[in-house]
Amino acid sequence: MPNRKWLLIILGxxxxxxxxxxxxxxxxxxxxxxxxxxxxxxxxxxxxTVLDGHDYPEHNKEALYAIGTNGIPFYLEWLQYEPxxxxxxxxxxxxxxxxxxxxxxxPNFIAARSVGAELAFTVLGPRAQVAIPTLVKYATDSSxxxxxxxxxxxxxxxxxxxxxxxxxxxxNHDVSVRSLVLFQARRLDSKRQVIEQVQLLLADPxxxxxxxxxxxxxxxxxxxxxxxxxxxx
Length: 233
What we know:
mainly alpha, two-stranded antiparallel ribbon
């Protein structure tokens, strides 16, 4: 019996060691670099600027264009971060102080990186279409409302290539998913299939979705077709 106990302890230590090595390898995975600056630095830099209502800085755009689709696996990984309650409170306070006093305080590197990863999809647009299957998986399978919302907003940022995926998500059983996708429908080209799918939601079982569908449908039918922004080559 004592021998069996020691055997279990040794096996447990081995398992923890293997797990630790796996985590270390994953965290040590080298990021793409542009002009000797890592991707996480490029994506974090503009966060406060953009959240404060300003345009995405051109030199950061240049970096993301240069890194291209090599950055997408990292964006998808960073999107999955969700801060705890205390960290959320700290980030909220930091956001307010930055806005009021013109500061550039990022109390959480990982949180800022996750926001920056989401903003990266606004820069890449259709060029990021390779991320669509993973973003759909996040939108449907994640237990986190924050991650679902990020994934759906990223699909909206990708634009036309993501329209089929967004139309499918409009039929998702989760009311919050349908609502988030409806909001993104305003940003899409007013194609017939988009309008037709929104029209179907006028008969949705949820009063909330029916109301939102009516508002979005009115917007789609009364606004001109948005200009497509071509990704920089």
